[in-house]
Amino acid sequence: MANEESTNGVVLFGKYEIGRLLGVGASAKVYHATNIETGKSVAVKVISKKKLINNGEFAANIEREISILRRLHHPNIIDLFEVLASKSKIYFVVEFAEAGELYEEVAKKEKLTEDHARRYFRQLISAVKHCHSRGVFHRDLKLDNLLLDENDNLKVTDFGLSAVKNQIRPDGLLHTVCGTPSYVAPEILAKKGYEGAKADVWSCGVVLFTVTAGYLPFNDYNVTVLYRKIYRGQFRFPKWMSCDLKNLLSRMLDTNPKTRISVDEILEDPWFSSGGYKLDRVLVKSQMEESRTGFKSLNAFDLISFSTGLDMSGMFEENVGLSLVERVVSAKLPERIVKRVEEVVGTKVVVKRLKNGGGARLEGQEGNLIALVVIYQLTEELVVVEMKKRGKGDEYNAQLWKNKLRPLLVELAEKQEVPVSR
């Protein structure tokens, strides 16, 4: 922004006129803005690049949220329009939910009628089912992260703590302890691993209980006491709650995740399906460039990372222990790039192609990971090729890089292509 301190009336990149401040968090400020071309309202989340570079965990959460929002397109999930950057800031332009948080709606009315709550809850379950079908587990569902638009429709937001399927360990479970205390599932507190989908169902149960009862099922000033109540499933239903709703909540707030109701079972529950309701088949946009091209495409956030020297490639579990060596732009087809990798490394290296033609894993004869080649779509004609390798390796691996992989990068970037590595 032209003036980082006084933002009201500033036009961002000639496209968005910044308005009032909507909220301030520990890591970002959120402003209302107007798209000058269309006149429509948007929300702009402003993040300092310095904070990203200085805080690896925060940077990982931001990248995860962006990558997740790119794959989720649903009427009840906040929409990400684009990512922009100045010299010192990154701007996320997202859908504006005019009516604010569901928390504020409940606070005004003290509690919602079951019919009113059921409408919101159906939208929440529809959004959560869509997330799970795309391999995304929110892990921080709460009233503060549920917004309402001008048509009183619910919008799920804040995917910074979300997990994706490739974070699941060999035991089939997630292990990161996260979430908001009053909404967290007991199995997460047990620190023995948990199913993301079942943990989300628990949090949805806390949301439904709170909006219909007017208070949280689990609450205490002492966090230790609070966690004990959650772990034991100690809560009381209000007198005015219907038997059908109590039955549903009892199944959602079951402390045993193995017997806890699933999302698909919720759809068949009497209270949820009252009046013959069936979940509509939601029409969603195609999954961006990834589904059209068959391999991962770069978004603006990726390009920002490239241009600033902010390497976030090691933030996900599959890249642990790898370091970015070099990155080049190439006009060669992804299939041809992978084939050339196979040709140059020889028989002593096992080349395992990544799904959808997105690159390859280079492994030793014993299955040890030597290097990773990742291909991203930049434009219709160009791709970005990243090569990552182990920080430490034996002499053979060092020679493999020097004599084979490094010359291959030069070959891929020859003539009209230019390197974009740091």
TrEMBL record:
Residues 293-317 form the NAF domain. Residues 16-272 form the Protein kinase domain. InterPro entries: Kinase-like_dom_sf, NAF/FISL_domain, NAF_dom, Prot_kinase_dom, Protein_kinase_ATP_BS, Ser/Thr_kinase_AS. Transmembrane segments: none annotated. One of its GO terms (biological process) is signal transduction. Its EC number is 2.7.11.1. It comes from the Eukaryota. Keywords: ATP-binding, Kinase, Nucleotide-binding, Serine/threonine-protein kinase, Transferase. Belongs to the protein kinase superfamily. CAMK Ser/Thr protein kinase family. SNF1 subfamily. This is non-specific serine/threonine protein kinase. The lineage of its organism: Eukaryota, Viridiplantae, Streptophyta, Embryophyta, Tracheophyta. The gene is DT1.
